Amino acid sequence: MTVGCAPATYQPLSSLTEAPAPCATDATTIRAAGLLDGRGGAFTGAVVTVRGDVIASIDACDGPVTHEFGNATILPGLIDVHVHLDWHFGPDGRFDGRSALSGASALERQAAILTNARLTLEGGFTTVQSLGSPIDIALREAIARGHAPGPRVLTSAGQIDPGSRAPDDLRAIVRSLEASGADVIKAFAPEGMSSSTATQRAVAQLQAICGEARTLGLRSVVHAQDPPAIAAAVAAGCGQVEHGTFADEDTIRAMARARVYFDPNIGLVLQNYLEHRTAFLGAPGYTEERFRGMEAILPTLGPLFTRALAARLQMPLGSDAVAGAHGRNAREIVARVRTGGQRPADAIVGATSLAAESLGLADSIGTLAPGRQADVIVVQGDPLRDIRSVERVLFVMKGGRVYRTPE
After folding, report:
1. pTM, full prediction
2. What is the mean pLDDT of each run of 10 residues along the chain (407 residues)?
3. H or E stretch including 385?
4. 366, 79 Cβ separation under 8 angstroms
5. Where are the alpha helices (DSSP H) in 80-220?
């Protein structure tokens, strides 16, 4: 395994063309010093030409362009496969934990959720998967219709905690979520299982959930923290494991063999909780003991990610952004490099083409290429040399529409 930040070699696009043609004047054109295509390709001298909501071409051209950037890098719109857009602080600046409503009125909740969406988009994330709330359905539609600025939203429209439910009851819940408009099914795997009977019951429950999702053409993700929970999700044939905080070598190898996606969250969610400790403290489940547990876990996250890298697990970028974290999702990319030892180019792939693949959208987003959706961002500097560049967003386009330009 290679650990470090070795820059990729740029190939000037101008060298591929003997005499670059003039840049288009009847389309939107974007030029910067560098371009990363989301699949590991790195280029200089590139101009992205956008017509309507798709990328028409990426090539060298001469003359003025619509958006000219100097020492900057063009990237595909970033993708976060695990956020909670409905989580926010209340008017008093605190989180009360009641279904993430935080004691606010309906209008205040709506405004807070729309703000979360806008901040996420302005942070360079043009697509997110919001896991957990039926509120996301209305938000998804409002954004898609252009009524509010925000990233493209995929949602689970709820969460399934199996508890003591029978498999047939769990299948019915999956069908209900699908009927409500869910794009993905999210379930919880029981933690702390210590008997074979409990494990067999958990596997049967998760098989019912993930199997019914597949029957309906939906993906499945499972919140699983400890080895028995992770093993149950893998044995049940579920598509993606979330968190995996206490994964051991056996469960890491099991995920690798099963070719499931693994979404560890190492750079934002716990750090955000601790940074906003007083805002969360006192809400149901947020105790001083829990915060001490978070502090103890933090040093283990980098090594967890490094072990998963060594096992060649496919890890799309997920931040688990909650109240206080929206718009700062790119911290997760930085942590994968600086704490987890991933190469910058690979970390960017994880937040672009690999994330798109995990969402079943690899043919439309996550890559800069002709015919793909015109989700284009520009960041200051070169993230292959300084990964923190991904936090310095200058320009955001989603589906051909510009949402952020330099002030």
Report:
1. 0.95
2. 42 63 95 96 94 96 95 98 95 74 72 96 98 94 97 98 97 98 97 92 98 98 98 97 97 97 98 97 94 97 98 98 97 98 98 98 97 98 98 98 93
3. none
4. yes
5. 106-122, 135-144, 167-180, 196-215
